[in-house]
Design a protein that fits this description.
Radius of gyration: 19 Å
CATH topology of the largest domain: 60s Ribosomal Protein L30, Chain: A
Number of helices: 5
Helix content: 10-25%
Strand content: 35-45%
Largest sheet: 8 strands, antiparallel
Order of helices and strands: EEEEEEEHHEEEEEHEHHEEEE
Number of domains: 2
Distance between the termini: 25 Å
Shape: globular
Length: about 230
C-alpha cells in the first residue's frame, strides 16, 4: 500500500487491544484497515523516536533459518549475544525478557535507523536465538536495551527537530502513534511522554493511540513513537 502512494507516505499503527480489535472508520468496525489519505496540498512534517538504545557494535548474521539465528560473525549466536549484554545479564538470561531486544539496522540509513524486534526464544544448548522477524544470512544485526532515560533524550531530540521545522509557527494539529511498550511501561503512569511533547511544542490538538507495531513509510517498527504535525 505504501509503495502505491508514489511520492506520498504511510504512517500509522497496528491495532492493539486486550479483547476485540475495534476501529472507527465512520462507523465501528473490526479488523482490516482504516485511515485517511491526504493530498499533497496538506502540508505536514513527521519524525519518529526510538525507545531502545544500542548495546555493542553492529554484527552480521552468517547463518540462520527463518526467524532463528544460528551464527553471528561466524560464531555461535548466543556467544555474541552474551558478550554484548554484559556478564550480569549473561549469567541470568531470565532477566533479558522485556529488557533486551534485537535490532535490524536499515541499510543505507544516514541516521543509523533500525527496526526493533522481540527476542522470542533462547536455546542455551545449541546457542541459538529466535527473534520476531524472518532473517537471512548477510543481514546486519545489533542488540538493544529498553531504557527510559535514553528514550526520553531521543524523544526530546525528535521534538526539537520538528520545532525547528515549524520556524516559530504553532502546529494546526498532530497525530501520535506510540508503541504500547512505551507509555506507562517505559515512562511511568504520569503521562510523561505526552507531557514532554506539550513542553517542547506547546498546546495544540493532538490525537493518536498505542499501537502493536508502528508504520512509518514502508517499514513496520516497534517501541517507537511517530509524530506527524499539520503545518
Amino acid at each position: 500500500m505504501s509503495e502505491r502512494l508514489g511520492d506520498g507516505f504511510l504512517i500509522g499503527g497496528l491495532t492493539s487491544s486486550r479483547h476485540q480489535h475495534l476501529q472507527i472508520a465512520d462507523t465501528l468496525v473490526e479488523g482490516g484497515l482504516s485511515g485517511v489519505l491526504f493530498s499533497s496540498a496538506v502540508a505536514v512534517t513527521t519524525r519518529l523516536t526510538q525507545g531502545c538504545s544500542p548495546l555493542g557494535p553492529r554484527h552480521q548474521i552468517t547463518e540462520s533459518s527463518n526467524n532463528i539465528i544460528v551464527r553471528i560473525d561466524d560464531r555461535p549466536a548466543l556467544d555474541v549475544f552474551k558478550e554484548d549484554i554484559g556478564t550480569e545479564l549473561a549469567n541470568d538470561l531470565d532477566q533479558v525478557a522485556g529488557l533486551i531486544f534485537a535490532a535490524l539496522p536499515i541499510i543505507g540509513s544516514d541516521t543509523g535507523d533500525y527496526l526493533v524486534r522481540n527476542l522470542i526464544g533462547i536455546d542455551p544448548e545449541h546457542k541459538l536465538l529466535a527473534i520476531g522477524d524472518v532473517v537471512n544470512s548477510g543481514m546486519p544485526i545489533m542488540f538493544t536495551r529498553r531504557d527510559r532515560e535514553t528514550a526520553h533524550q531521543d524523544l526530546v531530540k525528535m521534538l526539537n527537530i520538528l520545532k525547528k521545522r515549524l520556524k516559530g509557527k504553532q502546529p494546526k494539529g498532530g497525530v501520535y502513534y506510540s508503541c504500547m511498550g512505551r507509555g506507562q511501561n517505559l515512562f511511568g503512569k504520569n503521562s510523561e511522554e505526552l507531557k514532554t511533547i506539550q513542553q517542547v511544542l506547546g498546546d495544540f490538538p493532538l490525537l493518536g493511540f498505542f499501537a502493536n507495531g508502528e508504520i512509518y513509510y514502508q517499514r513496520l517498527y516497534g517501541f517507537t513513537g511517530i509524530l506527524t504535525l499539520f503545518l
